[in-house]
Amino acid sequence: MLELEHTTKTHDESRQGEALDMLPTGKSTGRKLYIESYGCQMNFSDSEIVASILVDNGFETTKDYKEADVVFINTCSIRENAEQRVRNRLKEFESAKAKNPGMVVGVLGCMAERLKSKFLEEEKLVDVVVGPDAYRDLPNLIGKVDDGAKAVNVLLSREETYADINPVRLNSNGISAFISIMRGCDNMCSFCVVPFTRGRERSRDFHSIVKEAQDLFNAGYKEVTLLGQNVDSYKYTAPVAEGETPQPTVNFAQLLAMVAEVSPELRVRFSTSHPKDITDEVLHTMARYENICKYIHLPVQSGNSRVLELMNRTYDREWYMERVDAIRRIIPECGISTDVITGFCTETEEEHQETLSMMDYVKYDFAYMFAYSERPGTLAAKRYEDDIPEDVKKRRLTEVVNKQQEHSLYRAQNFVGKVQKVLIEGFSKRSDQDFCGRNDQNTMVVFPVDERFKRGQYVHVMVERCTSATLMGKIVD
Ligand code: SAH
Ligand code: SF4
Ligand code: F3S
């Protein structure tokens, strides 16, 4: 975790440097691939697509970059320190490359897209730079490097969704998997680099999404998370030939229902919801299906309407509160989490207080909290001065983190004395005498192993105690 990033639980944007675990091998050429991912769940999901493409091209995989022929790092640009982390990691690859000059080092993902060929000048050990929409070109690009050239493909696409690629599940527990349902983002929040690194928003064919969920369920998976930067704007219309009747458009609520219909035994989660777009139809669909988890990640960013306007979030404080009220009305037991940015351009002390009072209003189950980090090329970088001193940003961040700590504890305490349905994910981090898994609201639950049950099964757990991040109890089935 970096000094300016604080979460009350592990956040995917803070997941760092997870290497892939194990890959089935295709028609092997004996060349070894190592891939490491940073950033959000979308990036981890993309690494599974990259692995699939390369395994189909004869690669085997390794967990040790020192023995790899191809070393890929799938990068994130969301905050400056995310990029710094990647640069530091690249330094560590230098000695491996010195020992094995034939080793191909590639930078994938958002930083590749942001810096393009500049990367090759800045980091001499890098041979190949590939943006998020160009992964099908990887075998060809590696071929160019083998022939002694450097290779770059950072073309963004309006169509690419990798819908036909069957991702190789990396680091999988065999129980939970991510499914990308869309790519890119059209929102242009002024602080955010994602629209520049990921391109225009496009939705993936729902047939391929439902099929992927069905295939995962058939393979023993019990939980899928549908991924997109703004899942509520999912919209897919099947293309039709001239003269044919147009197919109806499928929206996110309808997609959610289709995935939930795969099996009542398959839990369905999704991320991220945008407050401007989340509809009552989605909320009613969640309420209707027992297997759609009652948990919504609804990033607020700021509790003040003027700051929200500068951020170009296109909702205000009142709108956000009304959406929270709607969630509480339609799904009373729903968990809600958020993202907060402190010290955005021109944010006053009073405006910061409004973020704190918004937190009091919602009492989030979890939050991912960040000090504002100016990103080159964004609307905010062009229009506004990054004028809040670093120490003020950090102090405000600490206040937000401390408040969230109280609220996480408050929410956790509400589960004490209640029975929770938990999907067993495996042994707890601390001990193989304990199982762990999450309840519907995404809170981690730890309980003693019971021989009658195993990973991938649902159990009912009576919660007896808690910390702000974990519920503890025992199985009552
Ligand atoms: N699509 C999601 C967010 C993706 S980025 C959404 O709209 O909610 C994840 C989080 O990183 C954002 O919600 C925001 O809180 C944070 N973030 C993005 N850009 C940032 C920046 N320049 N400085 C600090 N935090 C940032
Ligand atoms: Fe970034 Fe806003 Fe798009 Fe989220 S919705 S990815 S914050 S531009
Ligand atoms: Fe980072 Fe790109 Fe995701 S910037 S947060 S990896 S979309």
UniProtKB/TrEMBL annotation:
Detail which positions bind [4Fe-4S] cluster 1. Answer: C40, C76, C110
Q: According to the record, how does the cofactor bind?
A: Binds 2 [4Fe-4S] clusters. One cluster is coordinated with 3 cysteines and an exchangeable S-adenosyl-L-methionine.
Which EC class does it fall in?
A: transferase
What subcellular compartments does it reside in?
Answer: Cytoplasm
Give the quaternary structure: Monomer.
Family matches, as Pfam families: Radical_SAM, TRAM, UPF0004
Q: Which UniProt keywords apply?
A: 4Fe-4S, Cytoplasm, Iron, Iron-sulfur, Metal-binding, S-adenosyl-L-methionine, Transferase, tRNA processing
Q: Which reaction does this enzyme catalyse, per its entry?
A: N(6)-dimethylallyladenosine(37) in tRNA + (sulfur carrier)-SH + AH2 + 2 S-adenosyl-L-methionine = 2-methylsulfanyl-N(6)-dimethylallyladenosine(37) in tRNA + (sulfur carrier)-H + 5'-deoxyadenosine + L-methionine + A + S-adenosyl-L-homocysteine + 2 H(+)
Q: What does this protein do?
A: Catalyzes the methylthiolation of N6-(dimethylallyl)adenosine (i(6)A), leading to the formation of 2-methylthio-N6-(dimethylallyl)adenosine (ms(2)i(6)A) at position 37 in tRNAs that read codons beginning with uridine.
Identify the SUPFAM superfamilies for this entry. Radical SAM enzymes
Which residues participate in [4Fe-4S] cluster 2 binding?
Answer: C185, C189, C192
Main localization of the protein described in the UniProt heading: cytoplasm
Family, as annotated: Belongs to the methylthiotransferase family. MiaB subfamily.
The cofactors required by this protein are: [4Fe-4S] cluster
Gene Ontology CC terms: cytosol
GO terms assigned for molecular function: 4 iron, 4 sulfur cluster binding; metal ion binding; tRNA-2-methylthio-N(6)-dimethylallyladenosine(37) synthase activity
High-level lineage: Bacteria, Pseudomonadati, Bacteroidota, Sphingobacteriia, Sphingobacteriales
Q: State the signal peptide span.
A: none
Question: What Enzyme Commission number(s) apply to this enzyme?
Answer: 2.8.4.3
Q: What name does the UniProt record give this protein?
A: tRNA-2-methylthio-N(6)-dimethylallyladenosine synthase
